[in-house]
Amino acid sequence: MSTSMQTAGEELVPASAAESQLSSLVYDLSQNVQVAMDNMMKMITVIDHNSSNVTEEIEKSMGFILQRKKDLKEEKENLQKAATAVLDVLNSGSP
User: Fold this and answer.
1) Is there a smaller number of Cβ atoms within 10 Å at the N or the C end of the chain?
2) Is the pTM above the cut of 0.90?
3) Of the candidates 27, 11, 30, 9, which has an alpha carbon nearest to the alpha carbon of residue 19?
4) β-strand 5-8 against 11-14: which pairing, if any?
5) Is 8 a residue whose pLDDT tops 70?
6) Pairwise CA distance, residues 71 & 65, whole Å
7) Which of these, 4, 1, 23, 27, lies nearest to 14 by C-alpha position?
């Protein structure tokens, strides 16, 4: 062990105490980083799950929208046929 002295602010601290404090600080920092990384992984998992749910809902909505579009197109064609039939009747009944 070293018996040299290091200055910490205005008081002298033995080198071994400074190394111990530094070691403790590094350990605490590494623990905080590990906790932060664990929390980020949990958030990533939640985001992935929510993203999957959103994607599934979008696909369901797209299916509904495409079916609705098809139904509206058929209804439009039927209305056009009915309007054409009415116009034909009106035109054929005129002198």
Assistant:
1) C
2) no
3) 27
4) antiparallel
5) no
6) 10
7) 4
CA proximity to 12, closest of 4, 21, 24, 20? 4
Q: Kindly provide the residue ranges of all beta strands, DSSP E only, lying in the chain, ordered along the sequence.
A: 5-8, 11-14
- By C-alpha distance, which of 38, 39, 1, 8 is closest to 22? 8
Tokens of 1: 């062990």
When comparing pLDDT for 63 and 13, which is higher?
Answer: 63
Structure tokens at 36: 């932060």
Q: How far apart are CA 24 and CA 18, in angstroms?
A: 10
pLDDT at residue 95 tops 60: no
Task: Please enumerate in sequence order all residues whose Cβ is within 8 A of that of 49, keeping only pairs 6 or more positions apart, or say none.
Answer: none
The helix/strand/coil state of 9 is coil
